[in-house]
Design a protein that fits this description.
Layout lengths: L1 E9 L2 E6 L2 E9 L2 H10 L5 E5 H6 L5 H10 L4 E4 L5 H9 L4 E4 L1 H5 L1 H11 L3 E8 L2 E4 L4 E6 H10 L4 E6 L11 H11 L2 E5 L5 H8 L6 E6 L1 H5 L4 H8 L2
Parallel strand pairs: 1-4, 1-12, 4-5, 5-6, 6-7, 7-10, 10-11, 11-12
Antiparallel strand pairs: 1-2, 2-3, 7-8, 8-9
Helix pairs in contact: 1-3, 7-8, 9-11
Protein backbone atom coordinates (compact mmCIF):
# COMPACT_ATOMS: atom_id res chain seq x y z
CA UNK A 1 0.00 0.00 0.00
CA UNK A 2 1.41 3.35 -1.09
CA UNK A 3 1.88 6.24 1.35
CA UNK A 4 1.24 9.55 -0.43
CA UNK A 5 2.03 12.83 1.34
CA UNK A 6 -0.37 15.66 0.50
CA UNK A 7 0.71 19.14 -0.50
CA UNK A 8 -2.15 21.64 -0.60
CA UNK A 9 -1.52 24.93 -2.37
CA UNK A 10 -3.23 28.24 -1.66
CA UNK A 11 -1.90 31.62 -2.75
CA UNK A 12 1.42 29.96 -3.49
CA UNK A 13 1.78 28.58 0.02
CA UNK A 14 1.72 25.05 1.41
CA UNK A 15 -1.27 24.94 3.76
CA UNK A 16 -3.67 22.57 5.52
CA UNK A 17 -7.37 23.08 6.15
CA UNK A 18 -9.85 21.36 8.46
CA UNK A 19 -12.83 19.92 6.56
CA UNK A 20 -12.05 22.23 3.64
CA UNK A 21 -12.80 25.36 5.67
CA UNK A 22 -10.64 28.25 4.48
CA UNK A 23 -10.90 29.99 7.86
CA UNK A 24 -9.08 27.04 9.45
CA UNK A 25 -5.98 27.48 7.30
CA UNK A 26 -2.58 26.71 8.76
CA UNK A 27 0.46 27.66 6.68
CA UNK A 28 3.20 25.03 6.89
CA UNK A 29 5.61 26.43 4.33
CA UNK A 30 6.05 29.37 2.00
CA UNK A 31 8.33 27.21 -0.17
CA UNK A 32 6.18 24.42 -1.64
CA UNK A 33 8.99 23.12 -3.85
CA UNK A 34 11.24 22.61 -0.83
CA UNK A 35 8.37 20.98 1.04
CA UNK A 36 7.83 18.56 -1.83
CA UNK A 37 11.54 17.75 -1.98
CA UNK A 38 11.54 17.11 1.76
CA UNK A 39 8.85 14.42 1.40
CA UNK A 40 10.82 12.80 -1.40
CA UNK A 41 14.04 12.85 0.62
CA UNK A 42 12.20 11.23 3.54
CA UNK A 43 11.20 8.29 1.36
CA UNK A 44 7.91 9.15 -0.34
CA UNK A 45 7.55 7.53 -3.75
CA UNK A 46 4.50 9.54 -4.83
CA UNK A 47 3.11 13.03 -4.07
CA UNK A 48 -0.47 14.34 -3.98
CA UNK A 49 -1.04 18.01 -4.85
CA UNK A 50 -4.30 19.91 -4.43
CA UNK A 51 -4.76 23.36 -5.95
CA UNK A 52 -7.14 24.77 -3.34
CA UNK A 53 -7.50 28.04 -5.24
CA UNK A 54 -8.50 26.00 -8.26
CA UNK A 55 -11.00 23.93 -6.29
CA UNK A 56 -12.84 27.07 -5.21
CA UNK A 57 -12.57 29.04 -8.47
CA UNK A 58 -13.03 26.18 -10.94
CA UNK A 59 -9.73 26.77 -12.76
CA UNK A 60 -6.19 25.72 -11.67
CA UNK A 61 -4.37 28.71 -10.19
CA UNK A 62 -0.98 27.36 -9.08
CA UNK A 63 0.33 25.73 -12.25
CA UNK A 64 3.69 27.50 -12.23
CA UNK A 65 4.40 26.14 -8.76
CA UNK A 66 3.26 22.67 -9.81
CA UNK A 67 5.56 22.91 -12.81
CA UNK A 68 8.50 23.76 -10.53
CA UNK A 69 7.65 20.91 -8.16
CA UNK A 70 7.50 18.36 -10.98
CA UNK A 71 10.77 19.65 -12.42
CA UNK A 72 12.57 19.33 -9.09
CA UNK A 73 11.30 15.87 -8.09
CA UNK A 74 12.28 12.40 -9.22
CA UNK A 75 9.00 10.88 -8.02
CA UNK A 76 5.63 11.07 -9.80
CA UNK A 77 2.96 13.58 -8.83
CA UNK A 78 -0.82 13.49 -8.99
CA UNK A 79 -2.88 16.68 -8.93
CA UNK A 80 -6.46 17.78 -8.42
CA UNK A 81 -8.32 21.02 -7.80
CA UNK A 82 -10.37 22.96 -10.34
CA UNK A 83 -9.58 20.71 -13.30
CA UNK A 84 -12.93 20.79 -15.07
CA UNK A 85 -12.20 20.92 -18.80
CA UNK A 86 -10.28 18.95 -21.41
CA UNK A 87 -7.96 21.93 -21.89
CA UNK A 88 -7.16 22.02 -18.18
CA UNK A 89 -6.46 18.27 -18.13
CA UNK A 90 -4.12 18.59 -21.09
CA UNK A 91 -2.35 21.60 -19.60
CA UNK A 92 -1.70 19.80 -16.30
CA UNK A 93 -0.45 16.63 -17.97
CA UNK A 94 1.83 18.71 -20.20
CA UNK A 95 3.53 19.96 -17.02
CA UNK A 96 4.70 16.40 -16.39
CA UNK A 97 2.07 15.52 -13.79
CA UNK A 98 1.64 11.75 -13.73
CA UNK A 99 -2.07 11.61 -12.84
CA UNK A 100 -4.90 14.13 -13.02
CA UNK A 101 -7.75 13.91 -10.52
CA UNK A 102 -11.20 14.96 -11.74
CA UNK A 103 -13.69 15.73 -8.99
CA UNK A 104 -16.54 18.13 -9.68
CA UNK A 105 -16.18 17.32 -13.39
CA UNK A 106 -17.20 13.74 -12.70
CA UNK A 107 -20.62 15.05 -11.64
CA UNK A 108 -21.07 17.94 -14.05
CA UNK A 109 -19.66 16.32 -17.19
CA UNK A 110 -19.31 12.58 -17.39
CA UNK A 111 -18.70 13.01 -21.11
CA UNK A 112 -15.49 14.85 -20.22
CA UNK A 113 -14.40 12.02 -17.94
CA UNK A 114 -15.08 9.42 -20.64
CA UNK A 115 -13.20 11.48 -23.24
CA UNK A 116 -10.17 11.94 -20.99
CA UNK A 117 -10.07 8.29 -19.97
CA UNK A 118 -10.24 7.23 -23.61
CA UNK A 119 -7.32 9.51 -24.50
CA UNK A 120 -5.15 9.40 -21.38
CA UNK A 121 -6.04 6.05 -19.78
CA UNK A 122 -4.84 5.54 -16.22
CA UNK A 123 -3.45 9.07 -16.06
CA UNK A 124 -7.02 10.00 -15.17
CA UNK A 125 -8.45 9.29 -11.71
CA UNK A 126 -11.67 10.50 -10.13
CA UNK A 127 -11.80 12.09 -6.72
CA UNK A 128 -14.98 11.25 -4.82
CA UNK A 129 -15.47 13.55 -1.86
CA UNK A 130 -18.17 12.53 0.59
CA UNK A 131 -20.07 14.32 3.31
CA UNK A 132 -22.34 12.01 5.30
CA UNK A 133 -22.15 9.57 2.35
CA UNK A 134 -23.41 12.20 -0.12
CA UNK A 135 -21.17 13.59 -2.87
CA UNK A 136 -19.54 16.97 -2.17
CA UNK A 137 -18.37 19.18 -5.04
CA UNK A 138 -16.95 22.63 -5.83
CA UNK A 139 -14.37 22.73 -3.08
CA UNK A 140 -16.80 20.87 -0.80
CA UNK A 141 -19.07 23.91 -0.68
CA UNK A 142 -22.02 22.01 -2.17
CA UNK A 143 -23.45 18.51 -2.14
CA UNK A 144 -25.51 16.71 -4.74
CA UNK A 145 -28.32 14.20 -4.40
CA UNK A 146 -26.16 11.17 -5.01
CA UNK A 147 -24.35 8.84 -2.66
CA UNK A 148 -20.65 8.28 -2.98
CA UNK A 149 -21.38 4.61 -3.70
CA UNK A 150 -23.69 5.37 -6.63
CA UNK A 151 -21.08 7.72 -8.08
CA UNK A 152 -18.36 5.09 -7.69
CA UNK A 153 -20.40 2.62 -9.72
CA UNK A 154 -21.13 5.17 -12.44
CA UNK A 155 -17.46 6.14 -12.60
CA UNK A 156 -16.46 2.51 -13.07
CA UNK A 157 -18.78 2.31 -16.08
CA UNK A 158 -16.82 5.14 -17.74
CA UNK A 159 -13.60 3.13 -17.77
CA UNK A 160 -11.90 4.89 -14.87
CA UNK A 161 -9.49 2.59 -13.04
CA UNK A 162 -8.86 4.53 -9.84
CA UNK A 163 -10.79 6.52 -7.24
CA UNK A 164 -9.45 8.83 -4.55
CA UNK A 165 -12.03 8.82 -1.75
CA UNK A 166 -12.07 11.58 0.86
CA UNK A 167 -14.44 11.83 3.78
CA UNK A 168 -14.73 15.61 4.11
CA UNK A 169 -16.00 15.36 7.69
CA UNK A 170 -12.70 13.81 8.71
CA UNK A 171 -10.22 15.63 6.48
CA UNK A 172 -7.71 17.53 8.60
CA UNK A 173 -9.36 16.44 11.87
CA UNK A 174 -7.12 13.54 12.94
CA UNK A 175 -10.30 11.61 13.85
CA UNK A 176 -9.35 8.47 11.98
CA UNK A 177 -10.27 7.43 8.42
CA UNK A 178 -13.73 6.31 7.36
CA UNK A 179 -12.86 2.66 6.96
CA UNK A 180 -16.41 1.46 6.34
CA UNK A 181 -17.12 3.84 3.44
CA UNK A 182 -13.67 3.33 1.94
CA UNK A 183 -14.17 -0.43 1.92
CA UNK A 184 -17.70 -0.16 0.50
CA UNK A 185 -16.58 2.13 -2.35
CA UNK A 186 -13.88 -0.37 -3.28
CA UNK A 187 -16.39 -3.22 -3.16
CA UNK A 188 -19.20 -1.60 -5.20
CA UNK A 189 -16.86 -0.17 -7.86
CA UNK A 190 -14.26 -2.97 -8.05
CA UNK A 191 -11.73 -0.20 -8.74
CA UNK A 192 -8.43 0.67 -7.11
CA UNK A 193 -9.01 3.11 -4.27
CA UNK A 194 -6.75 5.59 -2.50
CA UNK A 195 -8.06 6.53 0.94
CA UNK A 196 -7.88 10.10 2.19
CA UNK A 197 -8.95 12.04 5.24
CA UNK A 198 -8.59 11.60 8.98
CA UNK A 199 -5.52 9.40 9.45
CA UNK A 200 -4.28 10.15 12.94
CA UNK A 201 -2.06 7.30 14.10
CA UNK A 202 -0.05 4.24 13.20
CA UNK A 203 -3.02 2.18 14.40
CA UNK A 204 -5.14 3.79 11.65
CA UNK A 205 -2.58 2.65 9.11
CA UNK A 206 -2.75 -0.95 10.28
CA UNK A 207 -6.54 -0.81 9.89
CA UNK A 208 -6.22 0.62 6.37
CA UNK A 209 -3.71 -2.08 5.52
CA UNK A 210 -6.47 -4.64 6.12
CA UNK A 211 -8.45 -3.09 3.25
CA UNK A 212 -5.77 -3.96 0.71
CA UNK A 213 -7.60 -7.17 -0.13
CA UNK A 214 -10.56 -5.09 -1.33
CA UNK A 215 -8.51 -2.91 -3.69
CA UNK A 216 -7.45 -0.08 -1.39
CA UNK A 217 -3.83 0.36 -2.43
CA UNK A 218 -2.87 3.80 -1.19
CA UNK A 219 -3.45 6.40 1.51
CA UNK A 220 -3.03 10.16 1.29
CA UNK A 221 -1.66 11.70 4.48
CA UNK A 222 -1.70 15.39 5.30
CA UNK A 223 -2.34 16.70 8.80
CA UNK A 224 -0.94 13.58 10.47
CA UNK A 225 2.42 14.11 8.79
CA UNK A 226 2.56 17.90 9.11
CA UNK A 227 1.60 17.85 12.79
CA UNK A 228 4.00 15.04 13.62
CA UNK A 229 1.22 12.70 14.79
CA UNK A 230 2.73 10.13 12.41
CA UNK A 231 6.21 10.26 10.93
CA UNK A 232 6.54 9.35 7.27
CA UNK A 233 9.16 6.72 8.10
CA UNK A 234 6.67 5.00 10.42
CA UNK A 235 3.95 5.06 7.78
CA UNK A 236 6.28 3.63 5.16
CA UNK A 237 7.33 0.83 7.49
CA UNK A 238 3.73 -0.12 8.21
CA UNK A 239 2.24 0.13 4.73
CA UNK A 240 5.07 -0.48 2.27
CA UNK A 241 6.98 -3.22 4.06
Amino acid sequence: MLVIPALDLRDGLCVRLVQGDMSSEIVYSDEPVQMAKQWEEMGASYLHIVDLDGAFTGTPQNLEIVKDIVKNLNIPVQMGGGIRSYEAVKKVLDLGVDRVILGTAAILSRELVAQCVQEFGEKIAVGIDGRDEMVAIEGWEATVEMTVYDLAQKIAELGVKRIIFTDTRRDGTLRGPNLESTKKIAEVSALKVIASGGVSSVEDLYKLKELEAYGVDGVIMGKALYSGAVHLKQALEVLES
